[in-house]
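Quick one: structure for this chain?
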Amino acid sequence: MPGEAIRGPGHRLTTAPAWRVRARRVALDRPIVVGILNVTPDSFSDGGDFFSPDSALRGAERLLGAGADVLDIGGESTRPRAGAVGEAEELRRVIPVVRAVHSRFPDALLSIDTVKSAVARAALDEGAHIINDVSATRLDEQMAAACAEAEAGLILMHSRGTVADMASYQHARYGADVVGEIAAELMGRAEVVQRAGVGSASIVLDPGLGFSKRSEHSLAALAELPRLVALGYPVMVGVSRKRLIGEITGVSEPKERVMGTVGVHVAALMRGARLFRVHDVREHRQALDAAWAMLGVGPEAHA
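Got it. Here's what it folds into:
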């Protein structure tokens, strides 16, 4: 089981001091920026931007240069009405990119955004460190074992339904305690993967903002984020350029939602989130680092 959440310096709610991803240790003593590298033709915001290994390699260089701690590579879009991607096609999209990025940037931490254990295994064999499963392993019973065998980091995101409908409102049905339901479902998945051999220190939870949730559900999850942090696992938040930001700000073009995204992520940092999955790395690196300094981490941090 994870360590109990405690009150850290500056009265900030903290969890484990590090996240174990294979043989590496990701210290959580500052905000961790996870840069999005979608190798898809149809993702809602950046579809087609990095669809070839060469363009993905240039994208990886740009994200790392801007301050990304982790690169999250995905070959299947979860946007509403996106077409299903078969295993062979996802492998064709993802594996050459993983191979090229790992070869060019051998020290970079690579996360693979997939719900398919075969894709996860192939990517881990090529040097990936983390699996980011938007179904929290619900959709492939072999996923937990694949991660356990490689001692990979595993991000469990809250969602309901399938890849085809989890980003819609089809399953956005909650009772009076939205966050209680999210917490219970995530803890259930954490218990499942630990029984399959995944170490508790390798697990990160993600409330899945915008997935199987209307805006009021996502806002409730953000407002009550300390309840999820108190479960004892590091928490990742990813609302980058999403519909929720457009509804709050009135900005219709996803690529123009940068400032709204940064604002929400800074608020999430103050509520205990430590990892942030984003498109716009440079803006987040600066904003999150500045907010972190303002939160007060002890005089030694400002020496």
